[in-house]
Structures are given as C-alpha cells and as structure tokens.
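Intended use. Records like the one below are meant for learning the mapping from a protein sequence to its folded structure. Do not use them to infer anything beyond what is encoded.
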Amino acid sequence: MKFTTESDIGRKRMVNEDRVAFLEHPDRFKLAILADGMGGHNAGDVASEMAIEEMKSNFLNMDIKNLETKETQRQWMLEAIQSVNEKIYNHSLSHESCKGMGTTLIAMLIDDSDCLIGHVGDSRVYYFTSDTVTLITRDHSYVNFLVEYGEISEEEAAHHPQKNFIVKSLGTESTIEPDFYELVLEPETNVLICSDGLSNKLSTDEMAAILTLPLSIDEKGKKLVQLANDSGGEDNISVILLSNDEEV
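Structure written out for the chain above:
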C-alpha cells in the first residue's frame, strides 16, 4: 500500500484549520487521521491539532494484543475517539479563547487490507475501483439529514444555503457517538479521505479522472488540491490518498 497526505490553506482563508496524519505502528497496524477544525468557531485549528495529537498518542501507545478481533478494534476506536472528544471539550470550557471550538474526524485503522473507519462530522471517505466510486461515510450535516428524509434532493443539497451546518462534531458536546464503517481494500483500488474543502469543489468524476492519470501517488494528491484551488479554494483543503495499485 502506498499513501500521500496533503493539507493546503486554500485561497481565501487566513488560517489552515485542517490537520492530517498517517501513522505506522511498529507491530502491524496503520492509522490515517484527518480533522477539519470547525470554520466560524474559535480555535478550530486548536481543536483539529488536539484531535490529531491525541489520536496519535492513543495509537502509538496501544497494546496490539487487544486488537486481535474486529470487535476489540472497534472498542479501541470508540474509546479513543470518546477520550479525544472529552479532552477537546474540557479544553474549550477551561480556555475562553477556545470556547465553542470543534472539529470533524476521520480515523481509519488499517490491518493489512481490512479497514475500520471512525467518523464524526462532514469529512469524507471515498472508495475507488477501476469503474466505480463509492462514498463510504454519511455526512453529519443538516442538509444530509434533509436528503435522507426526502425533504430535498441531492442536487438541491449541493446548493443549499446551510450545506455546511454540521449537526455532530468532536469537542462541542461532553459525549460523542461516532459512526463506524468497515472496508476491504481490494487490489487496484484507491481510498480518498478528504475535508469538505475538496469534496465541495470536485465531483467524483473529477476525482476519478485524476486518480487514473499516469502520475505518482504524491502527484495525484497535489493535483487534487490544485483542482480544488483552481475551482475557488474558499476553504482549507486536505487529502489522504491510499493506493492498493502496485503500479502507482
């Protein structure tokens, strides 16, 4: 498996509130993490930085003997995310400048080709095969809630004035219940983890077109960010790209 990470401030923002990381545990597992500090809130960059650093600490200090089954892996992920949420929430209460801060979170635990995804917010995970694109995660957003209940169409959601209103985020409440997804990485596939600075600007067809170019995985990551910037770059743009294609 090959990977690349990118995080760009974009063309309109003064601060990059996104954070990304890809970690490899000495004993087997890998962990991809993306956090998008909540725009419009105080210290979104503090929240996303805390999320990444706390998840890193949890991952690197874990005992892999406790992760031998999918059930124990899920339990570790749940406890790690809940611990991070508590620390961000308590920090916001004790620091006036950080009051109300929050962040999205994608954490993907990789065990060979098996992936467990913990998700909070509206950052996304896409899975690309040679001929299909699947959005793995479901946005924790007001607009997605309306779509799921049939109040508006997906086309209407794309231009809804409240499309960026998140209904669940890390650190804004004392407790959190993340969503979980499982994914098996087949040969010749790609996984794209991204903040909404990318997914709001690129269609899945545009993403897929870049992933099929004869470029290195690092070049593909930079190309995705470049296209989002070329399309306006109003938000921070972050990407973790994983490839199971040996030819990349």
